[in-house]
Amino acid sequence: MRDKxxxxxxxxxxxxxxxxxxxxxxxxxxxxxxxxxxFYSMDxxxxxxxxxxxxxxxxxxxxxxxxxMGVMMILLLVFTLYVGWLRRHALRIMRSSTDDYLHKLRAxxxxxxxxxxxxxxxxxxxxxxxxxxxxxxxxxxTIAPEKLLKKIALSSVIFAxxxxxAWYWAHKREQKFKNEIANLNDMxx
Length: 189
Prior knowledge:
Blueprint: H1 7-14, H2 22-58, H3 63-86, H4 88-91, H5 98-139, H6 145-188
Helix pairs in contact: 2-3, 2-5, 3-5, 5-6
Protein backbone atom coordinates (compact mmCIF):
# COMPACT_ATOMS: atom_id res chain seq x y z
CA MET A 1 0.00 0.00 0.00
CA ARG A 2 1.04 3.53 -0.65
CA ASP A 3 1.03 5.97 2.20
CA LYS A 4 2.18 8.86 0.08
CA UNK A 5 -0.47 10.93 -1.70
CA UNK A 6 0.07 12.38 -5.11
CA UNK A 7 0.44 16.21 -4.81
CA UNK A 8 -1.37 16.71 -8.11
CA UNK A 9 -4.41 14.89 -6.74
CA UNK A 10 -4.59 17.36 -3.84
CA UNK A 11 -4.41 20.31 -6.21
CA UNK A 12 -7.05 18.70 -8.40
CA UNK A 13 -9.41 18.30 -5.45
CA UNK A 14 -8.97 21.93 -4.38
CA UNK A 15 -10.06 23.43 -7.70
CA UNK A 16 -13.28 25.39 -7.74
CA UNK A 17 -15.82 24.90 -10.47
CA UNK A 18 -17.97 27.75 -11.66
CA UNK A 19 -21.54 26.66 -12.31
CA UNK A 20 -23.59 28.70 -14.78
CA UNK A 21 -26.47 30.56 -13.20
CA UNK A 22 -29.61 28.92 -14.57
CA UNK A 23 -31.77 31.94 -13.74
CA UNK A 24 -29.43 34.24 -15.69
CA UNK A 25 -29.37 31.85 -18.65
CA UNK A 26 -33.15 31.58 -18.62
CA UNK A 27 -33.46 35.38 -18.51
CA UNK A 28 -31.06 35.76 -21.47
CA UNK A 29 -32.96 33.13 -23.44
CA UNK A 30 -36.32 34.81 -22.81
CA UNK A 31 -34.91 38.19 -23.84
CA UNK A 32 -33.42 36.65 -26.97
CA UNK A 33 -36.71 34.95 -27.76
CA UNK A 34 -38.72 38.17 -27.54
CA UNK A 35 -36.14 40.07 -29.59
CA UNK A 36 -36.27 37.49 -32.35
CA UNK A 37 -40.05 37.35 -32.30
CA UNK A 38 -40.09 41.12 -32.75
CA PHE A 39 -37.40 41.09 -35.45
CA TYR A 40 -39.05 38.27 -37.37
CA SER A 41 -42.44 39.96 -37.21
CA MET A 42 -40.73 43.08 -38.62
CA ASP A 43 -39.23 40.91 -41.39
CA UNK A 44 -42.67 39.58 -42.27
CA UNK A 45 -44.23 43.06 -42.12
CA UNK A 46 -41.42 44.33 -44.36
CA UNK A 47 -42.14 41.58 -46.87
CA UNK A 48 -45.87 42.35 -46.79
CA UNK A 49 -45.21 46.08 -47.30
CA UNK A 50 -42.93 45.28 -50.25
CA UNK A 51 -45.58 42.94 -51.65
CA UNK A 52 -48.28 45.59 -51.26
CA UNK A 53 -46.07 48.21 -52.88
CA UNK A 54 -45.36 45.84 -55.76
CA UNK A 55 -49.05 45.15 -56.31
CA UNK A 56 -49.83 48.88 -56.11
CA UNK A 57 -47.04 49.82 -58.56
CA UNK A 58 -47.56 46.87 -60.93
CA UNK A 59 -49.87 48.72 -63.32
CA UNK A 60 -47.59 51.77 -63.42
CA UNK A 61 -44.55 49.74 -64.45
CA UNK A 62 -43.72 48.66 -67.97
CA UNK A 63 -43.02 45.03 -68.82
CA UNK A 64 -39.39 45.00 -67.66
CA UNK A 65 -40.27 46.57 -64.31
CA UNK A 66 -43.11 44.10 -63.80
CA UNK A 67 -40.87 41.10 -64.48
CA UNK A 68 -38.07 42.47 -62.32
CA MET A 69 -40.46 43.26 -59.47
CA GLY A 70 -41.83 39.70 -59.64
CA VAL A 71 -38.32 38.24 -59.49
CA MET A 72 -37.45 40.48 -56.54
CA MET A 73 -40.60 39.48 -54.66
CA ILE A 74 -39.77 35.78 -55.08
CA LEU A 75 -36.22 36.40 -53.85
CA LEU A 76 -37.53 38.49 -50.94
CA LEU A 77 -39.92 35.67 -49.94
CA VAL A 78 -37.02 33.18 -49.97
CA PHE A 79 -34.92 35.65 -47.96
CA THR A 80 -37.68 36.12 -45.37
CA LEU A 81 -38.14 32.37 -44.97
CA TYR A 82 -34.38 31.86 -44.62
CA VAL A 83 -34.17 34.57 -41.96
CA GLY A 84 -36.98 32.82 -40.09
CA TRP A 85 -35.06 29.56 -40.30
CA LEU A 86 -31.96 31.28 -38.88
CA ARG A 87 -34.03 32.59 -35.99
CA ARG A 88 -35.53 29.17 -35.22
CA HIS A 89 -33.51 28.46 -32.07
CA ALA A 90 -34.62 31.66 -30.36
CA LEU A 91 -38.22 31.32 -31.50
CA ARG A 92 -38.54 27.87 -29.90
CA ILE A 93 -36.80 28.32 -26.54
CA MET A 94 -38.70 26.52 -23.78
CA ARG A 95 -38.01 25.80 -20.13
CA SER A 96 -35.16 23.30 -20.07
CA SER A 97 -31.86 22.30 -18.52
CA THR A 98 -28.69 24.39 -18.27
CA ASP A 99 -27.04 22.40 -21.03
CA ASP A 100 -30.02 22.95 -23.28
CA TYR A 101 -30.04 26.71 -22.60
CA LEU A 102 -26.31 26.89 -23.33
CA HIS A 103 -26.71 24.85 -26.50
CA LYS A 104 -29.62 26.97 -27.75
CA LEU A 105 -27.87 30.24 -26.91
CA ARG A 106 -24.70 29.14 -28.68
CA ALA A 107 -26.66 27.90 -31.71
CA UNK A 108 -28.65 31.13 -31.91
CA UNK A 109 -25.57 33.29 -31.48
CA UNK A 110 -23.95 31.39 -34.37
CA UNK A 111 -27.07 32.05 -36.44
CA UNK A 112 -27.02 35.71 -35.36
CA UNK A 113 -23.52 35.94 -36.82
CA UNK A 114 -24.91 34.49 -40.05
CA UNK A 115 -27.76 37.02 -39.92
CA UNK A 116 -25.30 39.90 -39.53
CA UNK A 117 -23.22 38.60 -42.44
CA UNK A 118 -26.40 38.17 -44.48
CA UNK A 119 -27.35 41.76 -43.69
CA UNK A 120 -23.98 43.01 -44.91
CA UNK A 121 -24.34 40.97 -48.11
CA UNK A 122 -27.98 41.88 -48.73
CA UNK A 123 -27.15 45.59 -48.60
CA UNK A 124 -24.93 45.18 -51.63
CA UNK A 125 -27.44 42.88 -53.32
CA UNK A 126 -30.17 45.51 -52.93
CA UNK A 127 -27.88 48.06 -54.57
CA UNK A 128 -27.14 45.62 -57.39
CA UNK A 129 -30.87 44.91 -57.86
CA UNK A 130 -31.59 48.63 -58.12
CA UNK A 131 -28.76 49.15 -60.62
CA UNK A 132 -30.12 46.27 -62.75
CA UNK A 133 -33.62 47.77 -62.55
CA UNK A 134 -32.39 51.18 -63.67
CA UNK A 135 -30.12 49.77 -66.35
CA UNK A 136 -32.95 47.57 -67.67
CA UNK A 137 -35.31 50.54 -67.64
CA UNK A 138 -32.79 52.55 -69.65
CA UNK A 139 -31.78 49.70 -71.98
CA UNK A 140 -35.34 48.61 -72.80
CA UNK A 141 -36.56 52.20 -72.77
CA THR A 142 -39.25 51.50 -70.16
CA ILE A 143 -38.33 54.44 -67.91
CA ALA A 144 -38.34 57.98 -69.28
CA PRO A 145 -34.81 59.50 -69.20
CA GLU A 146 -35.78 62.50 -67.04
CA LYS A 147 -37.52 60.22 -64.53
CA LEU A 148 -34.54 57.87 -64.57
CA LEU A 149 -32.10 60.66 -63.68
CA LYS A 150 -34.30 61.81 -60.78
CA LYS A 151 -34.63 58.25 -59.50
CA ILE A 152 -30.89 57.62 -59.75
CA ALA A 153 -30.11 60.86 -57.90
CA LEU A 154 -32.61 60.11 -55.10
CA SER A 155 -31.45 56.49 -54.80
CA SER A 156 -27.81 57.58 -54.69
CA VAL A 157 -28.48 59.88 -51.75
CA ILE A 158 -30.48 57.24 -49.88
CA PHE A 159 -27.91 54.50 -50.48
CA ALA A 160 -25.00 56.81 -49.61
CA UNK A 161 -26.49 57.20 -46.13
CA UNK A 162 -28.01 53.75 -45.75
CA UNK A 163 -25.20 51.46 -46.91
CA UNK A 164 -22.39 52.60 -44.58
CA UNK A 165 -24.64 52.89 -41.52
CA ALA A 166 -26.34 49.52 -42.07
CA TRP A 167 -23.04 47.79 -42.83
CA TYR A 168 -21.45 49.26 -39.69
CA TRP A 169 -24.43 48.19 -37.57
CA ALA A 170 -24.30 44.63 -38.96
CA HIS A 171 -20.53 44.47 -38.46
CA LYS A 172 -20.89 45.53 -34.81
CA ARG A 173 -23.60 42.90 -34.25
CA GLU A 174 -21.40 40.24 -35.78
CA GLN A 175 -18.57 41.16 -33.40
CA LYS A 176 -20.98 41.27 -30.45
CA PHE A 177 -22.20 37.73 -31.07
CA LYS A 178 -18.68 36.40 -31.57
CA ASN A 179 -17.89 37.82 -28.12
CA GLU A 180 -21.09 36.28 -26.71
CA ILE A 181 -20.02 32.84 -27.97
CA ALA A 182 -16.59 33.32 -26.42
CA ASN A 183 -18.27 34.24 -23.10
CA LEU A 184 -20.47 31.15 -23.25
CA ASN A 185 -17.42 28.99 -23.97
CA ASP A 186 -15.62 30.56 -20.98
CA MET A 187 -18.66 29.78 -18.83
CA UNK A 188 -18.34 26.10 -19.74
CA UNK A 189 -14.65 25.86 -18.77
